[in-house]
């Protein structure tokens, strides 16, 4: 039987699938990065699994996470979102998602891609952390603080250092799989040049 990260609830098949195929894999696709950013900001104050269960609803509600479309959402669309029971109906979070899409596009224009911008905070190389127990996990790091501070300066909302660190973990900027988790080395093997 495969050993997995201790935080994972192995009674939930969808959570296992997320852990085994997505979490911690280095992402450079702007479309997926916008999806993760939007979901992480929606998650603030809630469990990640709550958001994971609503992911398909978010895809439908937020134009399949197309930042160009989300950036254009108007007041009537906001009202529609606030009446959508499939997502977290928090006005501040809905407004933040639309605002963040606009800032996301500005960064793409400036840096050529959001990935170029995001990965500079780890010098374009994933950080591999030594995780032997739940106590080894950090809530924030100097990198997530720098990233969050810069996002805030650029006008992003609901993306503080803790939320940004969760985003960094999800997008593989840090490999925070437990040392005994089969995915730790598997992810490294997927990108040998990136981890060398």
TrEMBL record:
Q: Does the keyword Zinc apply?
A: yes
Q: Which GO terms describe its biological process?
A: base-excision repair
Q: Cite the binding residues for Zn(2+).
A: 5, 19, 177, 181
- Coiled-coil ranges (or none): none
Q: What is this protein called?
A: DNA-3-methyladenine glycosylase
Q: Which UniProt keywords apply?
A: Metal-binding, Zinc
Note whether Cell cycle occurs among the keywords: no
At the top level, the lineage of the source is Bacteria
Picking any one GO molecular function of the record gives: metal ion binding
- Record InterPro entries: Adenine_glyco, DNA-3mA_glycosylase, DNA_glycosylase
